[in-house]
Amino acid sequence: IQDTDSTYDRLCNESNRRVNKIIGHMNWIAVASPHFVHCYRIKESTGWQLVFTSQYIDRTIDRVALNVKGLTQVDKPCDKMMAVSSGCWIKLWSFNDEGVSVDVGTFNLTVCVDALFFIGSHLVALSHLGKVGVWHAMTQNWQIRDVAPITSYDTAASLLLLGCKNGSIYYIDMQKFPLRMKDNDLLVTELFRDPSGDSVTALSVYLTPKTSVYGNWIEIAYGTSCGTVRVIVQHPETVGQEPQLFQTFTVHRFPVTKIMLSEKYLVSVCSEHNHVRTWRVTRFRGMISTQPGSMPLASFKVVSLDDTGQHPCHSLENNIGPFGEQQEVQVFVQRVIPETDQLYVRRASDGQRVCEVKSVDGSMVSAFCIHECEGSNRIGVRSRWYLFTGHLNGSIQMWDLTTALGLIGKSETAEADGDGGPTLNELLTILEQSDISMSRCSTPSISPAVSLLGYGINTHSSGDLTDIRHSNNSNI
């Protein structure tokens, strides 16, 4: 996919064509370069088509949010919404299938926006400093609420859960959109407090199929700054009461950065070179069970070297995952170094390699996204999972993951050994493009290799990988 818009060509040079962000919603994707956002739609008859391009954004775009299933109103034919953030500013548009757009407004969170997304038709912006901004789709009002410093968040249906530095988990029900009676401010309710008072650094919510007249059986897995993993549950009959602590795991030595509770597995990642620990979850009639309880499954690393001098919005594109629906197979996407033309897709449950993708034109991968596109209306045609890769030259490449997952699914019962990352030879080939420099961070930093600079400049770096420690049964 490549854009041919004349305005875009005129205003953007090659460096500004870089794809910084790709997100998807239903059969649409939004692609952000430093100063533009493009929306593409796929149709069975025509394939991918460019529908909407934003005007030039003066500030560099940091975050993008897309919602193509908005509220359809007679007086507002533009039912699709897109938002971007730059620093503390948020710009919101509505548009339709013909590309006609309406500028909804520009909002100020007063602090830098760290997360931007839609819950239903409502736009939500978060800052780690403890700010929650919500644009309500019905009232068209923008509200800001102060909470404790936010260290993690997750969404499920209409629920927004916030993990905070003070060890508390708060929630907002966006469907009810509760407001405090005394000042009409957004109501944020404390759901649970960590027994040790540690910061909640990762959150994952799972709504089980078990329902009743009172609501859902809610399961929440979270990780802390001390490396502890806990699972808490709330029964439909005990809504309004604090969830019960169900399980605790102390297997990480570093803060937990990512966690995912799904139908079959519990996956946690800590900051020590993306060290992953997984468990097989036991369920009875769809609900998590302690008999025989969660069984340890695998331990491996998904090492990804970070560039210390990159823009904050670029670092977001090295998010390893896990990606995928909680009822399906989930995967990690491993990009070993920032400037590379290949990615490794690995099964999240055991680290096994699903596939390796390499840029078809040799251009470096600058962003990626895993997204499910709906199938056609024909009987027997199912939706398919794709890996979208954005590149420095502005192109987007699409890879079929459904076929790869189908092939790897045949070995689901194979022994889990985490052997799915780059081999030693593959790693050496990748690192030929860069020099490894010493770093005090948990993840080493890199600098461009002298051979790639093309200048007569003497640079010195120490290429030592001995700090990347891993166990005998796990590779990089």
Short description:
With 476 residues, the chain is mostly beta strands. Helix content is 6%, strand content 44%.
Overview of the structural elements:
Mean pLDDT is 81; it is low at 308-315 and 447-474. The chain has 476 residues and is mainly beta. Helices cover 6% and strands 44% of the residues.
List keywords for this structure.
mainly beta; disordered C terminus; 6% helix; globular; 476 residues; four-stranded antiparallel beta sheet
Backbone shape: globular
Q: Strands of the biggest beta sheet: in what spatial order?
A: 1-2-3-4
Helical percent range? Answer: under 10%
Counted beta strands = 34
User: What is the straight-line distance between the termini?
Assistant: 32 Å
- Major sheet: 4 strands, antiparallel
What's the helix and strand layout?
Blueprint: H1 6-11, E1 21-25, E2 28-32, E3 37-43, E4 47-53, E5 63-67, E6 80-86, E7 89-95, E8 101-108, E9 115-119, E10 122-127, E11 131-135, E12 142-146, E13 150-156, E14 159-164, E15 168-173, E16 189-193, E17 200-212, E18 215-224, E19 228-234, E20 244-250, E21 256-261, E22 265-270, E23 275-280, E24 283-284, E25 287-288, E26 295-301, H2 312-315, E27 331-334, E28 342-347, E29 353-358, E30 365-373, E31 384-391, E32 396-400, H3 401-408, H4 424-431, E33 434-437, E34 445-448, H5 450-453
Antiparallel strand pairs: 1-2, 2-3, 3-4, 5-6, 6-7, 7-8, 9-10, 10-11, 11-12, 13-14, 14-15, 15-16, 17-18, 18-19, 19-20, 21-22, 22-23, 23-26, 24-25, 27-28, 28-29, 30-31, 31-32, 33-34
